[in-house]
Design brief:
about 30% helix; 5-stranded antiparallel beta sheet; alpha+beta; 2 domains; 17 helices; binds beta-D-glucopyranose; Glycosyltransferase; about 775 residues; 10-stranded antiparallel beta sheet
């Protein structure tokens, strides 16, 4: 188990005691603050030591040529990489001429706390300089949920036992030096000096830097303002040059006296606005924030989070670690999406530069379901971003000889950023995943305007893609050949079951929506013939099945392949993609991540109970979980297949992916989908929640360890609370009209008058399927049973 004793377990906070340089890069990710627009990694105030300095603005990226050994038609030529923008969090300190650098002198105490209820990251430490002067430093940081452009720091230094001369330098720094890459292909290409200076400015306590990215031509503005409180002999002076704007504060502190610097930072960027316009934009945001002041921002942050927790909290009794992890996950998913506003939600959120800052299907499949039931506005915004990128998706479809829209596998600004066709563009399922998110959002919120203005277009263009990508054979069956499903250890295969079932749902949803919004459909050029063709394709969709084994095939012919030799694979040879050639992975039965198992969750009604159990038993021994997206899906189906203990172990793995750095790459940023997957494993897994159209079902079943699981959902204009103990579930409608749901198949109408209790049917004992050798779920070595 890769964990660190420095992180404590508590219900509403993540606390690090002491400073542990070995986990510094990981701590920067777990302590990252973001609102979906601005992201600050949890770097130390003084900038050094660091693992990876990181300040991000959602959408700000640089482009670079994508090199290929051999050219091929339709290969994307330009890649996109998130860049480290102007760092507004730097506050350096000099104590009697010695830099406050924790690698020197004596660190008497150091603690960092991320408080999930206030949204504040607080650091307190006491340090004695090499020359023997002792200071106490307390800094508190926030990235505002309510003022999208704003981040802030309150920094306090106190002299402890003797008078000290203090210099505080509060800075905006562009083009920070970044550490070299370590060879992990998933880590970002650290572009050195991506910003060209356009303007620098300092006056009094106000600072501003405007830069422009060299190739992508995006203008990035950052401004800062300060309120300084200190003893009489305190002075301030501002200065700016090409890449640094700095406020220098000097003071002499008698013992017990404090110097306090409140720093407000605003950010803005644009691909079109002029330099004066961007400068005005950041100044205006700063003026608005200054009118609230630090304490106003703190109050607003708390109020925003109080509301969030009231509608989203998940309570787990009996497992403190999972309790902390699910709240940590909810908080970071909120941070990733809350104010992204028509920008992508990247796989790492704004917590690191891993995966080059790209967004994948992770957003629609893992992140948006959670947000749909807890922060639906963020979902509408994320899908509007997809709509805004339709021109690029239409061009891509045309380039590929297809109709409609082909959304990119990975991207920042909308165009395909994957240079690897088999696990990139061929993963066409991303289009159905987007459609699925549209359908869920509209069913859960009833947002008619969105359905008409955004939903129809997304459903129509993706349905067009499927109709042109697939074909009817001579029996009339519809096939989608040559595509890659979620499992990236199979590629360019025929009739991937997940893809086909998701495409089927996409085609049917498109056909239904054009009937509901005929005017909008006509504007998009849809006629009866076209929508009838979608229905025909959906109804004739082929789903491969092995009659001998009685299981669904992940794709046509999959169950005939040779099985991977798990016995001969050493534990250090995982992830397999870094130790074996893709060609071999592709032609064997080995599954990187839940694929058919995910289909059984997303397209649940298609599979009967018996097949769910049988398919799960078949795919478990083949699934190696080389992706962090797998464990949560396996948890969901493990519960349904009657293995709550195994599901618990998968939940554990998904939930602790980052807190325990299970994949050794948390330093590059958090696994946002896996964090969202914690919610999914609890709500859809142990809560057994499934929603198909307007029908909402629960089939709760707790693992032995849990005494109680409770969660709240917002849906169909109501707030519903579900509380589960071992033998009983209680459904309480907190607001809204009566609602009919199902509990383990039985209909139940809940109204506001009283809690509705229902017994949980007993589970007959059955033995859980085994996993590949060395690939048991990672739960502190406890064997699954
Ligand atoms: C997974 C993909 C995922 C990507 C980003 C890959 O390892 O196989 O399914 O979209 O990571 O999280």
């Amino acid at each position: 188990m890769i964990t660190h004793t420095s992180y404590g377990v508590e219900p509403w906070a993540l606390r690090e005691r002491g400073l542990h340089l070995d986990v510094l890069p990981q701590s920067e990710s777990v302590f990252a603050l973001s609102n979906g627009h601005v992201g600050w990694r949890g770097n130390l105030d003084e900038g050094e030591p660091h693992g990876l300095p990181g300040s991000y603005l959602n959408g700000v990226h640089e482009t670079h040529p994508l090199p290929y050994a051999e050219a091929g038609y339709g290969y994307p030529e330009s890649g996109q990489t998130v860049i480290n923008v102007t760092n507004g969090k730097v506050i350096r300190l000099l104590v009697d001429d010695e830099p406050f650098d924790l690698r020197y002198g004596r660190l008497r105490s150091h603690e960092r706390v991320l408080d999930l209820r206030t949204g504040l990251l607080t650091r307190t430490c006491e340090w004695t300089s090499p020359a023997g002067s002792t200071v106490r430093v307390r800094s508190t940081r926030l990235v505002s949920f309510t003022q999208r452009a704003i981040a802030a720091v309150a920094y306090e230094v106190e002299a402890v036992d003797s008078e000290v001369r203090i210099v505080v330098q509060s800075e905006l720094v562009a083009n920070e030096q970044l550490p070299g890459r370590d060879g992990d292909p998933r880590a970002a290409v650290a572009l050195q000096s991506p910003l060209e200076e356009e303007e620098h400015f300092a006056s009094g306590a106000r600072l501003r830097l405007i830069h422009r990215t060299r190739r992508s031509g995006l203008r990035v503005g950052a401004a800062a303002d300060h309120v300084v409180t200190g003893p009489e002999r305190t002075t301030i002076a501002g200065e700016a040059n090409v890449d640094v704007a700095r406020l220098t504060v000097t003071s002499v502190l008698p013992p017990g006296e404090k110097l306090r610097v409140e720093k407000l930072v605003s950010y803005g960027w644009s691909g079109t606005r002029s330099l004066p316009a961007v400068a005005d934009q950041v100044d205006a945001a700063l003026a608005a924030a200054a009118s609230f002041g630090w304490s106003g921002l703190v109050d607003e942050q708390r109020a925003f989070l109080d509301e969030f927790w009231a509608r989203s909290d998940v309570e787990v009794d009996g497992d403190e670690e999972i309790q902390q992890a699910v709240r940590f996950g909810l908080f970071h998913v909120l941070q990733a999406g809350a104010r992204a506003e028509q920008r992508a939600i990247p796989a790492k959120g704004l917590t690191g530069s891993g995966y080059d800052g790209h967004a994948f299907w992770d957003t629609e499949t893992f992140v948006l379901p959670l947000l749909t039931y807890t922060s639906p506005r963020a979902v509408a915004e994320a899908l509007r971003w997809r709509q805004n990128t339709l021109p690029a998706a239409r061009d891509r479809a045309a380039q590929l000889g297809l109709r409609g829209a082909a959304f990119p596998w990975r991207t920042i600004e909308g165009s395909e950023g994957s240079a690897y066709w088999p696990a990139g563009t061929a993963a066409f399922h991303v289009n159905a995943d987007i459609a699925d998110a549209v359908v869920r959002y509209t069913a859960v919120t009833g947002d008619e305007r969105f359905a008409r203005d955004t939903g129809v277009e997304l459903l129509v263009e993706t349905a067009r893609l499927w109709r042109s990508l697939g074909h009817h054979d001579h029996h009339g069956d519809f096939h989608i050949d040559g595509v890659t499903g979620p499992d990236e250890y199979s590629a360019v295969a025929n009739d991937n079951t997940y893809t086909n079932l998701m495409a089927r749902a996409n085609l049917l949803a498109a056909a239904e929506t054009v009937e509901r919004y005929p005017r909008r459909a006509a504007e998009l050029g849809v006629d009866d013939e076209e929508s009838a063709a979608w229905r025909d394709a959906a109804e004739a969709m082929h789903v491969p099945y092995n009659h001998e084994l009685g299981v669904h095939e992940q794709h046509a012919g999959f169950t005939r392949y040779q099985r991977w030799d798990f016995a001969a694979t050493r534990p250090d040879q995982y992830p397999l993609m870094l130790h074996f050639p893709y060609f071999d992975l592709y032609r064997k039965q080995v599954v990187k991540q839940a694929d058919l198992v995910l289909a059984m969750y997303k397209c649940s009604p298609f599979f009967d109970e018996e097949h769910k159990a049988r398919n799960f038993a078949y795919y478990e021994p083949l699934t190696v979980r080389d992706s962090s997206l797998s464990a949560c899906c396996q948890a969901v189906i493990a519960v349904e297949a009657g293995h709550p203990r195994l599901a618990y172990d998968y939940l554990h793995e998904a939930a602790l992916m980052d807190l325990h750095d299970l994949e050794h790459n948390t330093r590059d940023g958090l696994h946002i989908a896996s964090l969202a997957g914690t919610w999914m494993a609890l709500v859809a897994g142990f809560g057994g929640m499934r929603q198909h159209g307007a029908s909402l079902e629960f089939a709760p079943r707790l693992p032995e360890k849990f005494r109680r699981l409770a969660f709240t959902l917002e849906l169909l204009g109501r707030r519903l609370r579900v509380e589960i103990v071992q033998a009983r579930a209680t459904y309480t409608l907190l607001s809204g009209e009566p609602l009919t749901i199902r509990h383990h198949g039985e209909p139940l109408t809940v109204d506001q008058n009283k809690p509705h209790h229902r017994d949980i049917p007993a589970l007959s004992p059955r033995s859980a399927p085994a996993q590949p050798l060395h690939r048991r779920p990672n739960n502190q070595g406890v064997e699954a049973s």
